[in-house]
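Troubleshooting log. The previous structure file for this entry was overwritten by mistake, so regenerating from the original sequence record. Sequence copied from the archived sheet and checked twice against the printout by T.R.
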Amino acid sequence: MLSEVELSPLVTRVRLVYEPDQEIDYKTKLLISEVVQPIEIVTTSKGGKQTNLSTIFGSGTEDGMMYTFSSNLLDNPESMVLKLRGKTGKVYDDLQEAKNDELEIKIK
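Regenerated output below.
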């Protein structure tokens, strides 16, 4: 679950947590962290200009994961979409096939 988003002019932090009321063992947490890997945040300005914000840092936490991205908040983006890798261990023939499996979460 997307738990928290912290926006600042320098970085954007995204916190993902495991299902709150579920008991999850370590092996399952590892599997989840392998599958749920944010690729980038795509921002769109009022004029339609898109900017890709790359991952700077990511780490596991007791109840999930925290990822830090670059930021363009000073550009006042109209929308922000977090893109996540779709399937772990899958080998893709081309970039379009990989994009079809991506997951997106609207942040703003």
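The longest strand covers residues 50-61. Archived copy saved in two places this time.
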